[in-house]
């Protein structure tokens, strides 16, 4: 399937949501400013419920997304913009409070990775950065928090890549991408925000298997398939404006 066919395929699913999806908590908390966008609902199904003592609400715009590793493998959520769209000087002030329970010596380590050159609603250059990033967090047994501005575009794209990999590693059949997108959106509404991000998932997977592990999958690349793959890459670069 070529680039244009994949774009058409995505457009047919662009508005897909979980059948009978509800978003009551989203509506209740919108006036309080707990959502970044009115048109990006947080579905009640698989919603992350805050249980921190003394919290003013149990709501956050976040959903769990499961993989064969765990039913709560990822937490997909929103985050305010941390850097400007245009070159400038920006000052961000964060107030962080650490509360240590009495009578315990427990310590926790927090690792935060920020991807700086992935544009909103766009895609980054295909250099397997996503694979490198995912390899650094894959070993954790706790839910992995992934966030971007709306919590569905870049977030949904990176989660989709790991979702595919973990299915393959677990020996679970990988359905076609249409079904995988539906499964992802059944947990986090409107994940993968546009056709370019849909293409990016395919491009990364092709790059990973047919370029990084070329020797292992050499049998796939017949002369005919090499020609098709070269055309796919050229068309992808043209459409996305990347290399």
From TrEMBL:
Signal peptide: none annotated. SUPFAM superfamilies: (Phosphotyrosine protein) phosphatases II. One of its GO terms (molecular function) is protein tyrosine phosphatase activity. It holds the Pfam family Y_phosphatase. Residues 52-208 form the Tyrosine-protein phosphatase domain. Residues 138-199 form the Tyrosine specific protein phosphatases domain. This is Protein-tyrosine phosphatase. It comes from Nippostrongylus brasiliensis. The lineage of its organism: Eukaryota, Metazoa, Ecdysozoa, Nematoda, Chromadorea.
